[in-house]
């Protein structure tokens, strides 16, 4: 789960509109008026320069011009910051957006404190703020690590792995994942110390589609599955004591965390609609506690 980045996007958009309007007003209207006012001020200054030597007269004329041509501080700040705000807005809206991992639900792939980059255009170009897709480029693939707006509270961003695509039948039972009747094998790869629980859990290697990645599983720990809310397409899922079976609706995705016993995901709150997609996470650009983690991940 991430913080509420939607609020920041809205604030950035408002700043972009305000500074953009001021920039346009200044460029197309106010600059010409200031120049005309400055030219008139310089001409008026000539009337009081009789008997003044040429060098001093030139200095006084320039001072009169500069005073009349000065830009109010508010307009100057808006004009200066508009290109910067425009660049940041376009970059984070259509190209790449940074996020910080605040929990351990994606261990061992991502850990608390990882600063990651998210590709915003791989799944299509969307209008910022309203998040409406206007150009379809691609769709999520099974195994992608995806950032999306939490269906229960769209103001919050979540990150999980794509497990089920539209039309898939996903079964998670007795700590084993099956997709469309085929069990997804996982191979033991040692132990992993989970900070949230201060205990070692089993680390396994799993492959979803073309993506090989690690997951955490405690085979001995009990796990009950109950929905936390009456989510859309609730009838597509069947819950039982040791698992859940869901048929993924059209234009929706079934998401799971790599920390299988410590992740609040589609097993509990349902499916992620296409309109909630933010982008594909692909790179750790910094972890101040562990800089060696910088790099791509799967």
UniProtKB/TrEMBL annotation:
Residues annotated as the enzyme's active site: 105, 160
Residue runs in coiled coils: none
One Pfam family in the UniProt entry: Peptidase_S26
First and last residue of the signal peptide: none
Membrane topology: Single-pass type II membrane protein
Major localisation: membrane
Primary enzyme class: hydrolase
Domain Peptidase S26 per the UniProt entry, residue ranges: 75-286
Catalysed reaction, written as an equation: Cleavage of hydrophobic, N-terminal signal or leader sequences from secreted and periplasmic proteins
Compartment list: Membrane
Key words, A-Z: Hydrolase, Membrane, Protease, Transmembrane, Transmembrane helix
Cited SUPFAM superfamilies: LexA/Signal peptidase
UniProt EC number: 3.4.21.89
GO cellular component: membrane
A GO molecular function held by the record: signal peptidase activity
Protease in keyword set: yes
Transmembrane domains' residue ranges: 74-95
One of the GO BP terms on file: signal peptide processing
Stated family: Belongs to the peptidase S26 family.
Protein name: Signal peptidase I
Origin organism lineage: Bacteria, Pseudomonadati, Pseudomonadota, Betaproteobacteria, Burkholderiales
């Amino acid at each position: 789960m991430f913080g509420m980045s939607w609020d920041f996007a809205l604030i950035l958009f408002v700043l972009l509109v305000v500074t953009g309007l001021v920039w346009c007003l200044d460029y197309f209207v106010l600059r010409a008026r200031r120049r005309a006012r400055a030219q008139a001020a310089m001409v008026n200054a000539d009337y009081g320069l009789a008997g003044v030597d040429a060098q001093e007269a030139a200095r006084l004329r320039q001072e009169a011009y500069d005073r009349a041509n000065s830009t109010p501080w508010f307009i100057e700040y808006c004009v200066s910051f508009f290109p910067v705000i425009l660049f940041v807005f376009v970059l984070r809206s259509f190209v790449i957006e940074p996020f910080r991992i605040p929990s351990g639900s994606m261990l061992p792939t991502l850990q608390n404190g990882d600063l990651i980059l998210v590709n915003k255009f791989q799944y299509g170009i969307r209008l910022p703020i309203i998040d409406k897709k206007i150009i379809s480029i691609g769709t999520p693939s099974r195994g992608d690590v995806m950032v999306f707006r939490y269906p229960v509270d769209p103001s919050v961003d979540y990150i999980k792995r794509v497990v089920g695509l539209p039309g898939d039948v996903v079964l998670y039972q007795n700590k084993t994942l099956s997709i469309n009747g085929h069990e997804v094998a996982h191979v033991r790869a040692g132990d992993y110390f989970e900070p949230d629980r201060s205990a070692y859990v089993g680390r396994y290697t799993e492959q979803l589609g073309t993506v090989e990645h690690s997951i955490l599983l405690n085979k001995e720990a009990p796990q009950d599955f109950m929905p936390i809310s009456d989510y859309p397409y609730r009838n597509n899922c069947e819950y039982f004591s040791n698992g859940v079976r869901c048929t993924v609706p059209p234009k929706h995705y079934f998401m799971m965390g790599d920390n299988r016993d410590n992740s609040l995901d589609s097993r509990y709150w349902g499916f992620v609609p296409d309109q909630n997609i933010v982008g594909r996470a692909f790179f750790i650009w910094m972890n101040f506690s562990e800089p060696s983690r910088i790099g791509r991940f799967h």
